[in-house]
Amino acid sequence: xxxxxxxxxxxxxxxxxxxxxxxxxxxxxxxxxxxxxxxxxxxxxxxxxxxxxxxxxxxxxxxxxxxxxxxxxxxxxxxxxxxxxxxxxxxxxxxxxxxxxxxxxxxxxxxxxxxxxxxxxxxxxxxxxxxxxxxxxxxxxxxxxxxxxxxxxxxxxxxxxxxxxxxxxxxxxxxxxxxxxxxxxxxxxxxxxxxxxxxxxxxxxxxxxxxxxxxxxxxxxxxxxxxxxxxxxxxxxxxxxxxxxxxxxxxxxxxxxxxxxxxxxxxxxxxxxxxxxxxxxxxxxxxxxxxxxxxxxxxxxxxxxxxxxxxxxxxxxxxxxxxxxxxxxxxxxxxxxxxxxxxxxxxxxxxxxxxxxxxxxxxxxxxxxxxxxxxxxxxxxxxxxxxxxxxxxxxxxxxxxxxxxxxxxxxxxxxxxxxxxxxxxxxxxxxx
Length: 432
Ligand code: F0G
Fold this sequence. Notes:
Elements lengths: L3 E4 L5 E3 L14 E4 L2 H5 L4 H5 L17 H4 L18 E3 L1 H7 L3 E6 L9 H14 L4 E5 L3 H13 L2 E7 L5 H9 L3 E5 L3 H15 L2 E2 L5 H7 L1 H9 L7 E5 L4 H15 L8 E7 L4 H7 L25 H10 L3 E5 L1 H13 L10 H11 L8 E6 L7 H9 L20 H10 L6
Parallel strand pairs: 5-13, 6-7, 6-9, 7-8, 10-11, 10-13, 11-12
Antiparallel strand pairs: 1-2, 1-3, 4-5
């Protein structure tokens, strides 16, 4: 049996060659289901370890190293890869202390080609667009998906189309989408509305949708889990903690971890904790009521990447939390920016949304959900340069309603040795 598309609600199956994103029968979200029985005799820790450091396309990619578990049937000449993945897993004591635990790893997905984890999903989705013979690809985005789509579409020779709201997109992300040559459409509507628009337009105009409702995106993104486990020599940590917006990443993590476990590549399932910004927390609110009901909301947060009030992948994220006995937490913008300042000052750096991971771990430790001795991997989803404006404004103390607890003030000096010396001698150096 090859891979198939399967509805997560009614289990109806469809061939992977059909251009669909949700179940035509009941509207449920689709999974790409692989033949795990066949895979069991094919893949092993040693099999994937033998590809580490490969110089050969496509196995030089941290996504396609796991091709058998991502898209086994795709002919290599249709794969569009930069290559992505192979990102660092940092261990940092100062940040572990800040979070309140002994052992903290940070997986930096901002080290992907366009500076965010989206590249892992995009190589999966754009490659599938080529399998399906689609010439145009589109997404609605808070910024990173559009940057990634624009790059991968250009690389593949496809037309990229991106919709984003006309305010609050971080300048670095907008610059990327424009530079990579996508058709950039600013819409006077928020992300949640833009995603509806893009889905409707794509059906009418025969355009392939590359938002995370597309199950092939999630197949790429789940390799973050595969790579972490491989970097930890297949010893699963206790917790995986990540930010949650449209909930594609956390959904992909749940699926990926379950597959690793089912195939015997890891011996236990880590628990997934999804962290939302307080002003964009529909999953957290639903978690509070035991997922008995879900209400969408109007979203507001400084972490514009996750300013999402009606996440498309809600049911899959619930499933990921339930599968792994995970948790959902919320953090304030203040907590996000403080954690970001700490991550940045450690020399690792990330964009605001990514800092939810560390802020969330800290909070879950305070609440006793994560224990001090447990091993935790936090996911940093985007690069520090993505939202330079938020960073500079924080350090200048210019963010409304946010106190710059860890500000690194920029000094101004006249053209004189004395003036500069006085500044240097007055600096107090504290190790992050
Ligand atoms: N972190 C960053 C930096 C993001 O850009 C996003 C999502 C997330 C976290 C949340 O991930 O949606 O899978 O729960 N950005 C999307 C975009 C929505 O359009 O770039 P998620």
